[in-house]
């Protein structure tokens, strides 16, 4: 019931394409000493792409030696190329007798005015770097090339977070550039022990994936698990961190996310400081955080910026809202169709009066309204912004008010559905909010068939499932199961900062002494 | 894994139609009964139901403006109660739903015949609740559930509120719910007292909405006497004055207003009153060697002075003491009056039997053979201690102060 089949098909497809691309790149892999051969090889490998620029250079350095700059025009920054590579090369007054490889070394050491540059002999690497926005400088007679970083990747500026807003706290979010994202985290954690592991995933996209963790706080086993799972991925493309999430998570068939994703640098920094591991994927502003417990998915960074009493209250509200958004329509169905005796008499009569003349049974009525709402919600996300007001009028007036007035659904049901929907928006993590929505439908069916017995057995099933989940070796339900009193300070409630900071510092010290 | 999942899913899906929505009842398929009446007529049980018409009550559908009556009363009859209820399906489109039944009114004739069949039904069925309050009516029980009450929309619920309010704020009549009646009738005393529900005022009934259109209603539903049941049959009635002391004797007083006069002369009007806020009785039986039974009742009560017409000044501890003694006497005389009445009826509705059972379990075995006669022969020793904890803002009554101001 709770298990979607999403993901497995995608994985299959990726495997196939992965094999194909590897076969293609199987040929020779070293640069030769002939400039023309090298250029031909590059052209073939890049399928004569029209944006591959080949610029011959005559340098004062060694006037008779032909040189060529190769780059992909759309990926590179013209100004850097002109100012710091071409101009120094062409107008240098330096002359040298060195030729071939030595000449390349001299160009690297004395001419090119760009920081990130190195020499390689591997043609595959050259192609990859060209696609990363490097400029490749080839010299006649040298069996190597000089790769110079002049990439200019288009992207957004760092902007305010859109999915996770806070009233108090830093107002910046990650963007699609992994460099910027690492930069944002580094700005917060200026510690030498902040470790960054770079990996590359996807045979076609060659997406850069970075693991960020504090060397002396994060559990090495978990770091190794995550790293080895990412390294073992055989896929052709990674377009978003969701790919990585669904491929490395512990269990596929569960509605509950075992990783947290956030676009807030402060949330990531907070997680890293507590020993979690951040997984950044180039091209996605959503950074993954693992391992997480179920309860951590209800925490927001703002909990730590507010006063502890307010933060604790809001946390409790969130947990309650989660429970309500899973069970309220089911409870309503069960009470109105099976257990009328549970309601106070006057409430029962009020509800009964609303239901007079409603043509559908309670379950059908509830499913109808819930589905309507889900459709409205999906429409709200997909539709172009300009149509927004029209949809909200149709949704609110036509479907809500008119449905009640026409006697299709009862007013009580509309209230229940609306409150359930609002409760769902309280949950800070979208992916756990969605799982509550899925489970809600199951519960509604159970309630419609078995009444409270159905709901109770549903809740038990979910609890059993949750107790069996793990997030990279950490029990999903901790610190409730297994119970850990010391962690309760920052679970359902948030204790005053005084006690929390002590605990956090304690963690670091413990791990350090363990290593020694 | 996949196969297992598929089997699991299949079996779950197959379960849904199997259960067939089990015992689902939609709310617009049930008729909510808020009051039941039981009459005994021509050797048959006549059961009447007060059915709520939700639309007429809910403000949303604007039913009351259409002038629909909020309830509908109808009766069915049969040789057994449950058969009569079963027959209701022949004349009612909806399934009768008793879980929200608030009160049950039993006619005198039916009570004389015996209420054991009602109790039997309540003990056996899950839908019926033991929190239903029972009343006895001197005439036909059905007329009582046909009445409308001013202010309230659902008469059944309103009467339930009425008795709750009475039990908490005046303690003259107990709220006799089915489970209390069961406790009493199955306890050592095997008897109980149930309030009478009556229509006071003119005989013009309150059974149409038009009768509520005036600012005062000609008739009113209220509590009358206290019916005394022994075994499961009605044995007699206690008048309101006689019933007053029963709550004291059975130690059930919560709050009660007691009127008294200054002189202690029983002829003088009782123009002062005190409200008892806390009361408790220590009841101790003693079996004397000669076979007589003594019942010691130490009542301790405290209360607040509500009105005071006596001339003396309460600043004086002596007169305060005197007043307290007066009130204690008043309580005692109420208790004696009730005692006389219940010993006349020879029914132990105050639970003395249970006390004796607890203190003298051995002797009780013999006593219970003929408990009703032995009960009537009990000699109660009542002593009451009353404490005035608050006398209010003034020490003297208004007239004395006025006199003092003049002089």
TrEMBL record, chain B:
- First and last residue of the signal peptide: 1-19
Its main subcellular localisation, reduced to a broad class, is membrane
Keywords for the protein's UniProt record, in alphabetical order = Germination, Lipoprotein, Membrane, Palmitate, Signal
User: What's the protein's topology in the membrane?
Assistant: Lipid-anchor
Stretches assigned to the Spore germination GerAC-like C-terminal domain? 226-392
Provide the GO biological process annotations.
Answer: spore germination
Please give the Pfam families that the UniProt record associates with this protein. Answer: Spore_GerAC, Spore_GerAC_N
The record's comment on protein family reads: Belongs to the GerABKC lipoprotein family.
Name of the protein: Uncharacterized protein
Originating species: Paenibacillus oryzae
């Amino acid at each position: 019931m709770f298990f979607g089949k999403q993901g497995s098909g995608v994985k299959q497809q990726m495997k196939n394409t992965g094999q194909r691309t590897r076969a293609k790149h199987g040929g020779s892999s070293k640069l030769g000493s002939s400039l023309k051969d090298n250029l031909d090889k590059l052209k073939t490998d890049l399928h004569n792409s029209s944006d591959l620029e080949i610029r011959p250079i005559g340098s004062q350095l060694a006037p008779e030696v032909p040189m060529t700059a190769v780059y992909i025009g759309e990926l590179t920054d013209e100004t850097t190329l002109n100012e710091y590579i071409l101009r120094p090369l062409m107008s240098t007054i330096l002359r040298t007798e060195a030729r071939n490889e030595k000449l390349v070394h001299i160009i690297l050491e004395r001419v090119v005015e760009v920081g990130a540059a190195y020499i390689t002999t591997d043609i595959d690497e050259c192609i990859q770097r060209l696609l990363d926005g490097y400029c490749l400088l080839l010299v006649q007679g040298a069996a190597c090339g000089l790769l110079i970083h002049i990439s200019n990747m288009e992207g957004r500026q760092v902007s305010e977070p859109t999915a996770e807003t806070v009233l108090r706290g830093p107002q910046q979010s990650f963007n699609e550039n992994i460099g910027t994202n690492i930069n944002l985290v580094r700005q917060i954690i200026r510690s030498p022990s902040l470790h960054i592991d770079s990996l590359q995933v996807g045979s076609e996209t060659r997406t850069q994936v970075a693991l960020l963790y504090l060397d002396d706080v994060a559990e090495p086993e978990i770091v190794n698990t995550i790293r080895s799972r990412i390294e073992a991925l055989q896929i052709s493309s990674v377009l978003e961190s969701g790919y990585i999430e669904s491929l490395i998570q512990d269990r596929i068939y569960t509605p509950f996310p075992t990783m947290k994703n956030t676009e807030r640098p402060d949330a990531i920094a907070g997680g890293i400081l507590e020993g979690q591991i951040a997984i950044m994927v180039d091209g996605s502003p959503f950074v993954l955080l693992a391992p997480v417990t179920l309860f951590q998915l209800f925490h927001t960074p703002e909990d730590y910026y507010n006063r502890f009493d307010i933060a604790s209250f809001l946390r409790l509200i969130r947990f309650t809202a989660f429970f309500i958004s899973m069970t309220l329509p089911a409870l309503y169905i069960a009470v109105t169709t099976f257990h009328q005796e549970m309601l106070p008499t006057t409430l029962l009569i009020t509800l009964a009066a609303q239901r007079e003349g409603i043509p559908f049974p309670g379950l059908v009525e509830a499913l109808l309204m819930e589905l309507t709402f889900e459709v409205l919600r999906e429409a709200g996300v997909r539709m172009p912004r300009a149509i927004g007001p029209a949809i909200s009028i149709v949704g609110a007036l036509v479907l809500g008010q008119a449905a009640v007035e026409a006697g299709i659904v009862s007013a009580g049901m509309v209230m229940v559905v609306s409150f359930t929907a609002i409760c769902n928006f309280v949950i800070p993590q979208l992916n756990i909010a969605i799982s509550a929505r899925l489970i809600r439908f199951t519960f509604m069916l159970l309630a419609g068939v078995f009444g409270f017995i159905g709901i109770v057995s549903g809740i038990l099933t979910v609890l059993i499932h949750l107790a069996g989940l793990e997030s990279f070796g950490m029990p999903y339900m901790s610190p409730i199961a297994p119970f850990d009193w010391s962690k309760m300070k920052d679970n359902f409630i948030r204790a005053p900062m005084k006690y929390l900071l002590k605990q956090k510092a304690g963690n670091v010290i413990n791990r350090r002494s363990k290593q020694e | 894994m996949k196969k297992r999942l598929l089997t699991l899913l299949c079996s779950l899906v197959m379960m849904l139609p199997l259960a067939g929505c089990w015992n689902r009842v939609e709310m617009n398929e049930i008729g909510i009964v808020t009051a039941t009446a039981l009459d005994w007529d021509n050797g048959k049980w006549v059961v009447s139901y007060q059915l709520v018409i939700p639309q007429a009550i809910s403000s949303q559908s604007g039913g009351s403006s259409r002038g629909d009556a909020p309830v509908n009363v109808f009766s069915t009859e049969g040789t057994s109660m449950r058969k009569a209820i079963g027959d209701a399906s022949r004349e009612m489109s909806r399934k009768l739903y008793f879980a929200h039944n608030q009160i049950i009114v039993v006619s005198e004739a039916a009570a004389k015949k015996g209420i054991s069949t009602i109790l039997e039904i309540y003990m056996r069925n899950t839908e019926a609740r033991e929190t239903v309050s029972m009343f006895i009516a001197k005439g036909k029980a059905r007329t009582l559930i046909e009445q409308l009450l001013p202010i309230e929309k659902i008469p059944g619920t309103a009467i339930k509120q009425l008795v709750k309010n009475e039990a908490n704020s005046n303690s003259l009549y107990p709220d006799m719910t089915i489970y209390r009646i069961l406790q009493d009738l199955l306890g050592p005393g095997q008897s109980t007292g149930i309030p009478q529900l009556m229509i006071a005022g003119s005989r013009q009934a309150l059974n149409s909405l038009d009768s509520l259109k005036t600012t005062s209603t000609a008739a009113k539903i209220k509590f009358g006497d206290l019916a005394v049941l022994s075994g499961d049959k009605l044995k007699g009635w206690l008048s309101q004055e006689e019933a007053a002391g029963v709550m004291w004797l059975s130690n059930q007083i919560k709050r009660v207003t007691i009127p008294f006069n200054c002189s202690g002369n029983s002829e003088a009007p009782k123009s002062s009153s005190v409200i008892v806020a806390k009361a408790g009785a220590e009841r101790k039986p003693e079996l004397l060697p000669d076979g007589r039974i003594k019942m010691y009742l130490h009542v301790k009560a405290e209360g607040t002075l509500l009105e005071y017409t006596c001339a003396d000044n309460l600043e004086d501890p002596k007169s305060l003491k005197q007043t307290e003694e007066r009130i204690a006497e008043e309580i005692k005389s109420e208790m004696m009056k009730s005692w006389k009445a219940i010993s006349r009826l020879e029914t132990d509705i105050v639970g003395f039997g249970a006390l004796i059972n607890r203190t003298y379990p051995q002797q009780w075995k013999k006593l219970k053979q003929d408990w009703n006669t032995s009960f009537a022969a009990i000699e109660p020793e009542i002593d009451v201690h009353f404490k005035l904890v608050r006398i209010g803002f003034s020490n003297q009554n208004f007239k004395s102060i006025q006199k003092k101001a003049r002089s």
